[in-house]
Design a protein that fits this description.
- This is Cation efflux system protein CusB.
- The protein is largely without helices or strands.
- It has one helix at 23-29.
- The radius of gyration is 21 Å and the shape is extended.
Length: 50
């Protein structure tokens, strides 16, 4: 590919990144927030016989 690789070092200080959205933009986009919950992670599979 044509992208240059940039070396990263363990002792480098990273800038804190983040995204901020105004309250008005949040309302226009319909952004909803919820409290974090600790729950078990489950996965179920349903199949029908053919």
């Amino acid at each position: 590919m044509d992208m240059d690789l940039v070396p990263r070092y363990a002792d480098e200080v990273e800038e804190q990144g983040g995204v901020t959205i105004s309250a008005r933009q949040q309302q226009n986009l319909g952004v909803r927030t919820a409290a974090v919950e600790l729950r078990p992670l489950t996965r179920s599979w349903r199949r029908t016989a053919a």
